[in-house]
Specification:
By secondary structure, the chain is of the alpha+beta class. 35% of the residues lie in helices and 24% in strands. It has one domain: Aminopeptidase (3-Layer(aba) Sandwich). It is built from eight helices and ten strands.
Length: 249
C-alpha cells in the first residue's frame, strides 16, 4: 500500500505576472486580471486548507478534464467505486496490514461505507488537488483501490501522486503492479504528467518492492515525515518495461 487518500488539496500561491509578461497587454486587461487575482486571493484566505474548496478557488486547470472510465487490463477491471462494494471495502480497509501502512483510522461498517461513498465521488482530474480513485476488480470481486492525486498542473512540471491499496488476501499475484501500471499509463498519456510520485512508509517493504519493479526511483520524502518518497517519469517507465520484457516478465 502507498498513500492513497486525498490529504487536503494543494493550492499553489498565485504567481504575479512579470513586467515582461504584462508587456503588450492593454492597461485595461492588466487591471482586470489584477483585480480578479486579488479577489481570488482574498477568497482563498477565507477558506481553510482543510476544507474542500470550490473549483473557482483552485486556480489553473489542465487542458482537458480526465474522467474515470473503465480500464481493462489483462486480468483486472479498474472502474469507479460503487456502494455495492461496501462489505468488501470494509474488509479491505479493516485489515491490520492495511491500517499498519496507511494513515486511516479503524472504521466500523457505517464509517467505512461513508468513506466509500466519498470515494465514489472522486472521478475527475482537472485542477490541482483533484483526486481520482478507481476500484480494482478481479473476477467480479473488489480486491483493492488505485488512485491518482493531481498536484501541479503547469505543463512544464505537471505532477501527480499515485496510491494503491490491495486486499492482503489477493497479494502475491502481481495485481497491484498491474493496476498501478495502468494508472501510470493514464497519468502520462491522458493527464500528461511529467512525473508521478509515491509516498510509502519505510516498514512497507512490499510496496517499496512494487514501486521499484515499476521503475520508481527513491527521492526525498515529505518534510517532517519519516515516509519515503519515490518518483517515476515516462522514460523511466519505458526503460523499466523494456528491461522486464527482455527478461521475459
Amino acid at each position: 500500500m502507498s498513500r492513497a487518500e486525498p490529504l487536503g488539496p494543494s493550492f499553489p500561491a498565485r504567481r504575479q505576472p512579470s513586467a515582461s509578461a504584462v508587456t503588450g497587454r492593454t492597461a485595461e486587461r492588466a487591471v482586470d486580471e489584477h483585480a480578479a487575482s486579488s479577489t481570488l486571493g482574498v477568497l482563498r484566505k477565507l477558506v481553510p486548507d482543510a476544507v474542500s474548496r470550490p473549483r473557482l478557488l483552485r486556480g489553473p486547470r489542465i487542458e482537458q478534464p480526465v474522467d474515470a472510465r473503465p480500464i481493462q487490463t489483462p486480468r483486472l477491471l479498474l472502474r469507479r467505486h460503487e456502494l455495492r462494494d461496501a462489505e468488501s471495502w470494509y474488509r479491505i480497509q479493516s485489515s491490520p496490514d492495511v491500517l499498519a501502512h496507511l494513515p486511516w483510522p479503524a472504521r466500523d461498517r457505517a464509517a467505512s461505507r461513508e468513506h466509500l461513498r466519498h470515494r465514489t465521488g472522486h472521478t475527475r482530474l482537472w485542477q490541482s488537488g483533484d483526486f481520482l480513485a478507481l476500484a480494482i476488480e478481479h473476477g467480479g470481486r473488489l480486491i483493492g483501490d488505485v488512485s491518482l492525486h493531481l498536484r501541479q498542473v503547469r505543463t512544464a512540471d505537471r505532477s501527480a501522486e499515485i496510491g494503491w491499496v490491495l486486499d492482503p488476501a489477493a497479494g502475491g499475484h502481481g495485481y497491484a503492479t498491474e493496476a498501478a501500471g495502468a494508472m501510470l499509463d493514464l497519468a502520462f498519456e491522458q493527464v500528461r504528467a511529467t512525473v508521478v510520485t509515491a509516498v510509502i512508509e519505510p516498514e512497507n517493504t512490499a510496496s517499496i518492492a512494487l514501486a521499484e519493479r515499476l521503475g520508481f526511483l527513491r527521492t526525498a520524502g515529505p518534510r517532517r515525515s519519516s515516509s519515503l518518497g519515490f518518483a517515476i517519469t515516462p522514460p523511466l517507465l519505458a526503460a523499466r518495461r523494456a528491461e522486464r520484457a527482455g527478461l521475459g516478465h
